[in-house]
Automatic annotation (TrEMBL):
Belongs to the glycosyltransferase 2 family. GO terms for cellular component: membrane. One of its GO terms (biological process) is glycolipid biosynthetic process. The keyword Nucleus does not apply. Residues 27-195 form the Glycosyltransferase 2-like domain. One of its GO terms (molecular function) is undecaprenyl-phosphate mannosyltransferase activity. InterPro entries: DPM1-like (IPR039528), Glyco_trans_2-like (IPR001173), Nucleotide-diphossugar_trans (IPR029044). This is Undecaprenyl-phosphate mannosyltransferase. The keyword Transferase applies. It holds the Pfam family Glycos_transf_2. Coiled coil: none annotated. Its EC number is 2.4.1.54.
Length: 268
């Protein structure tokens, strides 16, 4: 009786292997020498727990302190790549450069995360956000307005700013799956960011200040992205260093940006 050999992992039609998605963490950083060491330690612990392959892209925006040196030193302990601005250029340009560097390094199945470098965002949430991308979302926002979210230690003026922005954006640009339009802690499918740069060029992140996060979201909305949210536990009480946000300037820039989107100036 003829015998057949059992199939092995070396059989060509059985040997297709899918590598897990790699996560690229883009961190815009300006004068974060107090917060950065602890944040990167927590990032390393989170990825050790999840087992996900990762790389951290830190864009130092012309810091006057030891942010760049600390970031370079951490590259000996974990996969860190540092991009430096010689002079301070603002959050928008720094975010843009971080996204560009990440998407240039990423494959089509990879995921790009942006978060603040001031240690207020919990790296432990990244695993859940990545799972939501795998479940079908193009963009996942760590939201202050989902059930289970908590905000600790945020100054009252910043709280009113985020609540007011939510009301205004919901009225003018209602987006399914989105309650928090200004959170900087997000996960993106790498292909979505690549498509956005192909469509908008550097204008994909066209705002220079904190209004850049809402600007990016509205442009991805025009691309027909599927959004989801995960509840954020924002720990402002763990923040290292002073806040860089100028609240009234941010309000003014956000209103101007909304006007451009509303009346067609930001469309393309």
């Amino acid at each position: 009786m003829p015998t057949t050999s059992p199939r092995t992992a070396t059989d060509s039609h059985q040997s297709i292997r899918f590598r897990p998605s790699k996560v690229f963490l883009a961190l815009p950083a300006y004068n974060e020498e107090e917060a950065l060491p602890e944040l990167l330690e927590r990032v390393g612990e989170a990825f050790a727990d999840s087992g996900l392959p990762y790389e951290v892209v830190i864009v130092d925006d012309g810091s006057a302190d030891d942010t760049a040196r600390i970031a370079a030193q951490m590259s000996y302990q974990m996969p860190v790549h540092v991009v430096q601005h010689k002079v301070n250029q603002g959050l928008g340009i720094t975010l843009r450069d971080g996204l560009r560097e990440a998407v240039d390094r990423a494959g089509e199945r990879d995921i790009i995360i942006t978060m603040d470098a001031d240690n207020t965002h919990p790296p432990g949430l990244i695993d859940r956000m990545v799972r939501m991308i795998h479940e079908g979302c193009d963009v996942v926002i760590a939201s202050r307005f989902q059930p289970g979210a908590r905000v600790v230690g945020v100054p009252i003026e910043r709280h009113f700013l985020s609540v007011g922005a939510r009301v205004l954006f919901t009225m003018l640009f209602p987006t399914r799956g989105v309650r928090d339009y200004t959170s900087g802690f997000r996960a993106y499918r790498a292909g979505v960011i690549r498509d956005a740069f192909a469509r908008y060029g550097d204008d994909f992140v066209g705002e220079t200040g904190f209004s850049c996060m809402a600007d990016v979201l509205l442009k991805l909305r025009k691309q027909g992205c599927l959004f989801g949210e995960a509840p954020l536990r924002l720990r402002y009480d763990q923040k290292g260093g002073d806040s860089k946000m100028r609240v009234f300037r941010t309000i003014w820039l956000t209103l101007k940006m909304l006007g451009r989107h509303r009346f067609g100036g930001a469309s393309k």
